[in-house]
Write a structure and sequence with these properties.
The complex is a heterodimer.
Chain A lengths: L3 H7 L14 H6 L6 H27 L4 H10 L4 H21 L3 H9 L6 H11 L4 H24 L3 H10 L1 H16 L1 H4 L10 H11 L9
Helix pairs in contact in A: 3-4, 3-7, 3-8, 3-9, 3-10, 5-7, 7-8, 8-9, 8-10
Chain B lengths: L20 E11 L2 E8 L5 E8 L2 E7 L10 E9 L3 E6 L3 E3 L8 E9 L4 E5 L3 E3 L4 E10 L4 E10 L8 E10 L2 E10 L17 E8 L11 E4 L5 E7 L4 E8 L2 H16 L4
The chains are: A mainly alpha, B mainly beta.
């Protein structure tokens, strides 16, 4: 394996479509709940320890070689909102195209064939990490970081926030990313003994409710 | 698959001072179109009373849970409906989680089982997380493919004008052996990010209304948003990836939450429902 593959996978320029998504930051800005770098940080911390932890657990499990279709079902059970299931599958489809071009593997081909409209993105990312020879912890890191870098970048555009301030927010959350990636990997380690219920299922009511509201906006800057 | 409890909701370590341990059991079975209660066993703080049946539906009310659970307590309610039974369970009063004599968390587990052709309603009064309390609550529902479930849960973080205690919850609903819904929450002092703009912001009342019904059609229940006055509460009614709808609601307080859930329930039932 080469650890540098993680840099390719986690690069914001990796062509997997993430840049078009705000991860719920756009509705939070509209509602006046995210107004500056301080509220961006609390938004990102909450997102990381809920949706981010769930996604990192799924990715770590896929990277560990657990059944991607069972993980896709586990992702559905942890995503009670249709708009977020749809976004996760769209992003999964785009991630699949980029991953098959970068690290072709029979496992990616099989998942693409089984879920032609896209599997949940963290499952695809985890499988891509596995195809690239990366570890479950690597996959969890990529997902946990992306989970906050997306909203931070989006808020730079939405609020004309200073990019230096947004990057400082990500740097301050580094320890939280460590904790979430480690917890996600530990949870994936427990699947053989405990089944898929071992994976985190932390919920964020406001992310859920506002995602569906945002999907119905006639005009929006970000797809989600 | 062996049902298990994830790290966050694992039973508390053995308390140094023993708290109350109690398991109440309710069981109902269908016989000739009617429902018979085959078990109604109260325990500890749980007293169970039979209410007048409504049609073929057996109705049970849990009373006396008012002052429980305290820190260190381990409380459990098991309710089972089988052979086409229709079982409706409510509680008389809100459940108030309080600080106990020990620092150990209290646990409160509800295990619902609904067999083929049964209907199970679990509609308790709200759970209030009082300052200083530490409660881990789990609710697990195992449903046969033809079972129908109506479940309402309300969590109020803190009594009026008071900060909340710590409340960790876990809801798992399985249908035909597959997990239909799995949600965890961790609120209050020591939890991370819970009062930020991604999770609850300044809302302190959270509610879920879940209806699992094999006859529910996805297309008949498109996502719908229900709002209280701006900033005081909002709810989303949305189909799960299965024959079920879930209402997720957040509100400033318990009264507004209840209004949102009532509105949502009327929306699910539809005209004449």
């Amino acid at each position: 394996m080469t650890r540098a593959a993680l840099l390719v996978l986690a690069d914001g320029r990796f062509p997997a479509g993430g840049h078009a998504h705000s991860g719920g930051a756009e509705p939070a800005v509209r509602a006046g709940r995210v107004t500056d770098s301080t509220s961006l940080e609390t938004f990102c911390r909450g997102r990381l320890h809920t949706a981010g932890l769930v996604a990192a657990g799924l990715a770590a499990a896929a990277a560990a070689g657990h059944d991607p279709l069972a993980l896709d079902e586990a992702a559905d059970a942890r995503t009670p909102v249709p708009a977020l299931r749809s976004t996760a599958r769209k992003l999964g489809r785009q991630m699949m195209r980029a991953a098959r071009a970068s690290w072709p593997s029979a496992a990616l081909d099989a998942l693409a064939a089984a879920r032609p409209r896209g599997a949940h993105q963290p499952v695809v990312l985890g499988l891509a990490a596995r195809s690239a020879g990366l570890t479950p912890l690597d996959a969890a890191y990529a997902v946990a970081y992306e989970n906050i870098s997306g909203p931070a970048t989006a808020v730079v555009r939405l609020l004309s926030l200073d990019p230096f301030d947004a990057t400082a927010v990500l740097a301050r959350l580094a320890t939280d990313v460590d904790r979430v990636a480690a917890a996600a990997t530990r949870a994936a380690d427990r699947i053989p003994a405990e089944g898929y219920d071992a994976l985190p299922a932390a919920s964020a009511p406001l992310l859920d409710i506002t995602a569906e509201a945002h999907a119905a906006w006639p005009v929006r800057l970000f797809a989600s | 698959m062996i049902p298990t409890i994830p790290e966050a909701a694992k039973p508390a370590p053995e308390p140094t001072t023993p708290g109350v341990r109690a398991t109440a059991r309710i069981a109902a079975t269908g016989r000739g179109g009617a429902t018979t209660l085959t078990a109604l066993d109260g325990d500890g703080p749980f007293e169970l009373r039979r209410l007048r049946p409504r049609g073929n539906e057996a109705r049970v009310i849990v009373v006396g849970a008012m002052s429980a659970p305290l820190g260190g307590d381990r409380l459990r309610i098991e309710a089972t409906a089988e052979h086409g039974a229709s079982l409706h369970i409510t509680s008389a009063t809100a459940t108030l989680a309080l600080k106990g004599a020990t620092a150990a968390p209290a646990t409160y587990d509800v295990a619902l089982t609904a067999g083929e052709g049964t209907q199970l309603h679990w509609l308790p009064k709200p759970l209030i997380s009082a300052v200083g309390s530490d409660l881990r609550q789990t609710l697990t529902a195992d449903l046969a493919r033809t079972a129908r479930l109506v479940l309402r849960e309300e969590q109020i973080l803190g009594r009026a004008g008071e900060p909340p205690g710590r409340l960790a919850t876990r809801l798992v609903v399985r249908r035909g052996g597959r997990t239909l819904l799995h949600q965890q929450a961790d609120y209050g002092p020591g939890a991370v990010g819970w009062d930020g703009p991604a999770v609850l912001a300044d809302h302190r009342a959270i509610g879920q209304l879940l209806i699992v019904d094999p006859s529910l059609e996805y297309a008949r229940n498109p996502p719908r948003l229900l709002a209280e006055a701006p900033e005081s509460g909002q709810a989303l009614l949305a189909p799960l990836a299965g024959p079920a709808v879930l209402v997720t609601a957040v509100a400033r307080d318990g009264l507004r939450l209840r209004r949102l859930l009532d509105t949502a329930e009327a929306a699910v039932r539809g005209p004449g429902g």
